[in-house]
Amino acid sequence: MKLLIASNNKHKIAEIKAVLGGEFDEITTLEEQHITCDPEETGKDFTENALIKARAVARMTNLPVIADDTGLCVTALGGRPGVHSARYASDHDSSANRRKLLDELQNVENREAHFETVVVLLYPDGKTVFGNGRVDGYITEKEYGDKGFGYDCIFFSAELNKTFGEATADEKLAVSHRSRALRDLLNKIAK
Question: Above 90 in pLDDT, residue 62?
């Protein structure tokens, strides 16, 4: 089966291909299919936003579509930035988003946070399968490492004992929210 990833984010695409690569005959991207689509994410939660993306792309193709929505949820901020993670301070400006978050957490003791991902596989017949993933940690007081993307260099993973920004791609993939959501999806498909 051929699968279309409903994302233009090269980091997400790489993670999805790394986990699902052996499970599908071919995994293709919007760019490879010459599809331009960037729907407004107006959902109230990760599930709704993942569905918005999947449905928007599905209307343009007859392929199964996989989409996700991911966010960083900080306990002391009531779960923010959450569904607004990519646009927290500015539209897809990771550096500005990190600065805003670190500024908001100045002098805050409880720095608990988690990344959460909901992934949806939408088939051409309308059938949907969801996967969920989460990884816990905390927000550091400054940036560490230069790997990864988004909030990775300020998210300390208790499981890795380092920030995602310091982790190799394989280390991050072993524990990340997105890889866990994708593996959850695969388990549900297998059943």
Answer: yes
Could you tell me the two tokens for 107? Answer: 């002098």
In three state form, how does the secondary structure of 46-81 look? HHHHHHHHHHHHHCCCCCCEEEEEEEEEEHHHCCCE
As for how many domains the chain has, the answer is 1
pLDDT at 37: 87
Q: Is 69 a known active-site residue?
A: yes
> Which domain covers residue 36, as residue numbers?
2-190
Q: How far is CA 160 from CA 79, 167, 169, in A?
A: 23, 8, 12
Catalytically annotated residue among 68, 69, 152, 184: 69
- Sign, CA torsion 49/53/54/58: positive
Q: Tell me, what CATH number does 148's domain have?
A: 3.90.950.10
- Eight-class DSSP state of 85: G
